[in-house]
Amino acid sequence: MTPAPRGLGVYREVLSVPGAPVLVTSGLVARLPISMLGIGIVLLVEAEYGSYGTAGAVAAAYAVVSSVCSPLVSRAVDRAGQARVMRPAIAVHLLGVGGLLLAAAAHAPVWVLFAAVAVMGSTIGSIGALVRARWLHVLARADRDGVGGGAGRLEGRVNTAFSLESVVDEVVFITGPLIVTAAAAAVSPVLGLAVAALAVGTGGAVLLAQRGTEPPPVPGRAPRGSSVVGARGMLTLLTVFVAAGGLFGAVEVVVVAFTDERGAPVAAGAVLAAYALGSLLAGVGYGAVRWASPPGRRFVLAACVFAAGMVPVALVSTVPALAAVLFVAGLAVAPTLIAGNALVREVVAPSRLTEGLTWVSTALGVGVAAGAAGGGAWVDAAGARSALALPAACGAVAVVVVLVGYRRLTRRS
């Protein structure tokens, strides 16, 4: 057995697994729309209908439908295979995008817009869950075959691969909104959504064409009592992710309002970028460590640090201070999300893995929507300075839930 690599060398080991480079690049491109479609829908509908209220309602409908339907799509993926389910699903999704663009251009009744985004949201699935499921498959196979640095180091490789995916997520959420807004400003909101459709179409096609990394399906109905949400510790995990999503959504809205109140609205992007940069750097560092503790304990500790990092946010009064505090707070974001996704592997049955990973993404999305709505209402009622307390409150909820569910989360299957 070759010696285990150290530091950033662990990423080289993981990327040496057959199929890994294409998996990363195609997964990144296919995932870009998750950070583009929401803002793209708002820009398109507002430009054509002149109403932010209508635009927000249509974007919210897309988010709700996507959150509800993505676990169902992933359940079908687990039973029938990624390519068999996602190829037609992505095709229908692209038809939905085209329908939205045509309906908006024709100033169709608003209900037509809702119908189009319902088609889009019900078929997009969770690309991140597909990619993580592929990582688990190829790394387990490499571990059995002794490929990529020797057998027996599966847990460490999974940690590194999930850290890499967390970094990809950060890149997606930083670059996606920039791409869609730049396209809308330079040409038209139509171009922004067209670029998103092109990304999921091309990236998804390349990803699904890689049959060597695709996990084998597990056909047949799941046995009675095998609900993913009802699995030991899963409800606790999902509740923590809802609270974390609430924190993220509140931060996005409150930061924009806070910088605007202080006469520096253009600084909002820089402040949020500092938050994302802290998470990105932490994700890289987290993946470079060979952790001895199990994911459950790491998740509990990371969630507590994640929540504690938001307490100083409620105390700041200047834009530079907010950027600095959020950068430090961001250092706990990626470790929490990475450990949580890794914990799914221990909590749910292997035959329901993609669905379990998708439920985590769904919980996060639900929290983001609720946090954004709550943050906006708090800003309107009491101002942005006061609303900085909301992210800290969401963090406190996460700590309470994770401590109450400590035994369920740390007891290994």
Folded structure, characterized:
- By secondary structure, the protein is an all-alpha fold.
- It has 2 domains: 1-218, Growth Hormone, Chain: A (Up-down Bundle), CATH 1.20.1250; 228-413, Growth Hormone, Chain: A (Up-down Bundle), CATH 1.20.1250.20.
- Helix content is 77%, strand content 0%.
- The chain contains 18 helices and no strands.
Element layout with pairings:
Elements: H1 9-15, H2 20-31, H3 37-49, H4 52-80, H5 82-105, H6 110-123, H7 127-145, H8 154-186, H9 189-209, H10 234-261, H11 267-287, H12 295-308, H13 319-330, H14 333-347, H15 353-382, H16 384-387, H17 389-404, H18 406-410
Question: What brief labels describe this structure?
Answer:
single chain; 413 residues; mainly alpha; Growth Hormone, Chain: A; 2 domains; 18 helices
